[in-house]
């Protein structure tokens, strides 16, 4: 039997025997010139995700292979979910290869975010996490901003070798690669993209001008991503689609903000001050008194406080409290994958609550 073709969407080898498993396509589709697996077909046409059985071990195996090859590793992170989309230990998988760090979805940041501050912060975070990238860039794969510069940086740092694009699921890796292909060849949407985490399955090889190739590796599921705790319907609501419009709240101590039912922010101690919320414009923010906050959550999670929706609230993890004493003015409290709240004034005590497993951290304001 001749070798089966691969799916033009996800790169998986097509198989016609096991529906529900990766690469399945109905036998009739084999006659077509361009074959797309059922999963990618549904995703493309109905924006609906079919779960497939691919384990974390499979992803790790592919990553492990990177260290044995020679080339530039391009690591893509989601600027909005920097820590949630980080791949811990990539420097160990990299062997001696250089890593170029690209932060995607820059179009979501308010215009007032200072590029220099952002790059500086990413550099510090990367170093803290054990990674010394050869360069750091921001792009919007969606709009195309910065993509040309990113292509030039890739060309410069690959030194004539292959390129491996890695990233956790949902960082926009496929969108980025599609952009590159489009810019280089004029072809549209070669790789499947979607709202849902984990849509790119096997390594896809894209030939470069010389004898080398660019490889799209599978998105790695990072269980710290808020996205994994949400149903697809709810996920759509938290993912910002447009530039975030900061929302300012003047709070007295002992007041609480709920961000849907996904996160909570208590102003515990300090003078009346302003807090600027940077999260998806569609998410509702609910203000209440600290003393009523627990009860409100118990009674109204899934209705007034949603997402998660009533239907999916049972499987949503409990919120975990993180307390911060903020000494400096203009400090961000970051909810990984959701956004951040800027504490405008110094000397306050606040508590941030996020679902168990989702990171909360503090940084000097990017604005
Ligand atoms: P992958 O899993 O890393 O391959 O991610 P995809 O390319 O499928 O993108 C995941 C989601 O992020 C999709 O809903 C994309 O539309 C969205 N996305 C990708 N790039 C950008 C970007 O530059 N800006 C914004 N706002 N959204 C993006």
Automatic annotation (TrEMBL):
PANTHER family: GENETIC INTERACTOR OF PROHIBITINS 3, MITOCHONDRIAL
InterPro entries for the chain: G_CP_dom, GTP-bd, GTP-bd_ribosome_bgen_YqeH, Mito_lipid_metab_GTPase, NOA1/YqeH-like_C, P-loop_NTPase
GO molecular function terms listed in the Swiss-Prot or TrEMBL record: GTP binding
Name of the encoding gene: yqeH
Domain CP-type G: 60-223
UniProt-recorded name of the protein: Ribosome biogenesis GTPase YqeH
Organism name: Planococcus salinus
């Amino acid at each position: 039997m001749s070798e089966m073709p691969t799916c033009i969407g996800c790169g998986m080898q097509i198989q016609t025997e096991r529906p529900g498993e990766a690469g399945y396509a109905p036998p009739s589709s084999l006659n077509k010139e361009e074959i797309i697996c059922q999963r990618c077909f549904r995703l493309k046409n109905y924006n609906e995700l079919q779960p497939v059985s691919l384990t974390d071990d499979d992803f790790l195996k592919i990553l492990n292979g990177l260290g044995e090859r020679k080339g530039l590793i391009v690591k893509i992170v989601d600027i909005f979910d920097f820590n949630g989309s980080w791949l811990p230990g990539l420097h160990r998988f990299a062997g001696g290869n250089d890593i170029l760090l690209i932060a995607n979805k820059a179009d979501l940041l308010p215009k007032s975010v200072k590029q220099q501050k952002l790059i500086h912060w990413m550099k510090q975070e990367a170093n803290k996490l054990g990674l010394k990238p050869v360069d750091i860039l921001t792009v919007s794969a969606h709009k195309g901003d910065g993509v040309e510069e990113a292509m030039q940086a890739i060309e410069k740092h690959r030194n004539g070798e292959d390129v491996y694009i890695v990233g956790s699921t949902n960082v926009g890796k496929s969108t980025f690669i599609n952009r590159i292909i489009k810019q280089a060849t004029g072809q549209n949407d070669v790789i499947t993209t979607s709202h849902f985490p984990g849509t790119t399955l096997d390594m896809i090889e894209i030939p470069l001008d010389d004898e080398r190739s660019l490889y799209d590796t599978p998105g790695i599921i990072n269980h710290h991503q808020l996205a994994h705790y949400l149903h697809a319907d709810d996920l759509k609501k938290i993912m910002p689609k447009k530039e975030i419009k900061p929302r300012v709240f003047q709070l007295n101590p002992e007041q609480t903000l709920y961000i849907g039912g996904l996160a909570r922010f208590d102003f515990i101690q300090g003078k009346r001050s302003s807090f600027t919320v940077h999260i998806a414009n569609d998410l509702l923010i609910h203000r209440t008194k600290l003393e009523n906050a627990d009860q409100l959550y118990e009674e109204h999670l899934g209705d007034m406080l949603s997402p998660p929706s009533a239907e999916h609230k049972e499987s949503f993890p409990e919120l975990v409290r993180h307390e911060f004493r903020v000494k400096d003015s203009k400090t961000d409290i970051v909810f990984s994958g959701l956004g951040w709240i800027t504490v405008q004034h110094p000397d306050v005590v606040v508590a941030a609550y996020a679902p168990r497993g989702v990171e909360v951290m503090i940084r000097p304001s990017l604005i």
